[in-house]
From TrEMBL:
It comes from the Bacteria. This is Alkaline phosphodiesterase I. It holds the Pfam family Phosphodiest. It is an enzyme of class 3 (hydrolase).
Length: 284
């Protein structure tokens, strides 16, 4: 049963905040071999899958859109690596000018909620329902972007926040996936994860927050976009109030289930055109 519109407490009791961290180009294959203590600690204290799947092609804009819009590319229409507008007509245009996303749902059904999007890749801008979001910030460089995200979490305490960081994708393209340099960069990625996670504690909202982490795709050699397991398998991690601890999720997870899970947590009614399903196996 859904709660009434505007409620900040929903299916998971006392949850008022969700932070979604997206790491560009982080393939699941790398995590068991990587030195990432912060990420692995979050996995142990929450629920996770290393067999969540991208949509095809296993590229950036199409998958970030699918994650936020809870639908695949033949529904939302963004089909390419750098899509700025839909190449296929969107099945629906929402109240904010593009296909409905989690941001629009929150604005319409939780009008008092505060939302934020902070991203280091400029392509994210074209996938956002801008008029539905309170704080939108594009910051070049993952360290500066992390600092800005931390500042917003601590000072603004948004009810929903999406953070996009561009690594390890940059190293994957420049030097190669599954290389020593890639794993070296994952240490930096893990440090940034720790800073963002710690900011939730510093903000004093940890007991009311669910933290989520995923990716848009993995990679092979210096590229991605094809159908190999290294490209299509991505991590999907959820941790916080009401989430099972140290639980490996066996159910199939598609990247478009992320938006649906956030909507379910907040008790929002999902539009008919959405195709994602909430990942209920992760909930206590």
């Amino acid at each position: 049963m859904l709660l009434s519109a505007g409620a900040l407490q929903a299916q998971v009791k006392k949850v008022k905040h969700v932070v979604l961290l997206g790491l560009d180009g982080l393939g699941s294959y790398a995590i068991p071999k990587a030195e990432m203590p912060n990420l692995k600690k979050i996995m142990e204290s929450g629920s996770y899958s290393l067999k969540a799947r991208t949509v095809l092609p296993s590229s950036s804009a199409v998958n970030w859109a699918s994650m936020l819009m809870a639908s695949g590319p033949t529904a939302h229409g963004y089909t390419e690596w750098g899509s700025k507008t839909p190449e296929i007509p969107s099945a629906k245009i929402g109240n904010y000018g593009i296909y409905p996303s989690i941001f629009g749902l929150i604005r319409e059904q939780m009008p008092k909620a505060k939302t934020a999007a902070v991203f280091s890749w400029g392509g994210i801008e074209y996938l956002l329902e801008k008029d539905a979001i309170d704080i939108i910030t594009h910051v070049d460089g993952d360290d500066l972007c992390t600092d800005k995200a931390v500042e917003i979490i601590v000072e603004e305490k948004p009810n929903f926040m999406f953070i996009h960081l561009n690594e390890p994708d940059g190293v994957g393209h420049g030097i190669g996936h599954d290389t020593p340099e890639y794993y070296k960069e994952l240490k930096n990625v893990d440090r940034r994860i720790g800073l963002i996670y710690q900011a939730i504690e510093e903000a004093g909202i940890a007991d009311e927050t669910i933290f989520m982490l995923s990716s848009d795709h993995g990679g092979v050699g210096k590229g991605h976009g094809e159908k190999s397991p290294e490209e299509i398998y991505i991590p999907w991690i959820i941790e916080g109030r009401g989430i099972k601890k140290n639980h490996e999720i066996s159910d199939l997870i598609m990247t478009y289930d992320t938006g649906a899970t956030i909507a379910w947590i907040f008790g929002l009614e999902m539009p008919q055109v959405w195709r994602g399903k909430p990942v209920l196996e992760s909930i206590k």
